[in-house]
Design a protein that fits this description.
By secondary structure, this protein is an alpha/beta fold. It has three helices and eight strands. The protein has one domain: Rossmann fold (3-Layer(aba) Sandwich). Helices cover 28% and strands 32% of the residues. The protein is elongated, with a radius of gyration of 27 Å. The termini are far apart. The mean pLDDT is 85.
């Protein structure tokens, strides 16, 4: 009598183990993600770093905020001919694009003798919002960016300027997307800061 339940238990345990092994789920095939980082600084020959001398009446500006529209994340976006945005299944930005815009603004301020960055409440404040940042394929692949700059003067009057630009990109990603993104960010930042200098 004792051998039958023990034999039945061993048989049941063997069936359960075989069933567990047979029911193992396969992992879905996923494409590995790859990172792209915009090349904000052009490669240069080694030479001594030189300081940009600011002019005495350089426009003082306080960088208030740099942000992006909610749909602009780390995924590389493609705009379809019908206007729909789709996310790239493989490529991602290594950080959010508005962080790169913030860095590009700081680089442009540092290289411009006519503008200096201050941290004073009495200085005009600059806020930048990245509105568009995607790849358009109509008439060749181009990286398109648009930034809204809001300049709040010392008199608390807000002036808004939208800067839009694009850069050609080789058709096969990643191609020269990193270099194109760096050039585009620097151009957007430069145009926005020209607006700051003109508001004086």
């Amino acid at each position: 009598m004792i051998r039958v339940p023990r034999l039945g238990f061993c048989l049941l345990l063997t069936i359960a183990c075989l069933g567990a092994v047979a029911c193992r789920l396969r992992r879905p095939d996923t494409a590995p993600t790859r990172m792209i980082e915009p090349q904000l600084l052009e490669p240069q020959l080694p030479e001594p770093a030189r300081q940009v001398t600011k002019v005495p009446n350089a426009a003082a500006v306080r960088l208030l905020d740099t942000q992006a529209r909610g749909h602009i994340g780390r995924r590389v976006l493609h705009q379809q001919p019908d206007g729909e945005l789709t996310e790239d299944s493989v490529w991602r930005w290594s950080s959010a694009p508005d962080r790169y815009l913030d860095t590009a603004l700081r680089i442009e301020v540092a290289s411009s003798p006519a503008i200096r960055l201050v941290d004073a409440g009495r200085a005009p404040a600059l806020a930048a919002t990245l509105l568009v940042w995607d790849l358009e394929s109509a008439g060749g692949t181009r990286l398109v960016g648009a930034v809204e700059f809001q300049i709040t003067g010392t008199d608390r009057v807000v002036h808004t300027q939208v800067v839009r630009a694009s850069e050609p990109v080789s058709a096969e990603l990643p191609g020269d997307l990193a270099a194109s993104a760096g050039r585009l960010l620097r151009r957007l930042a430069s145009e926005g800061l020209k607006g700051v200098a003109n508001e004086r």
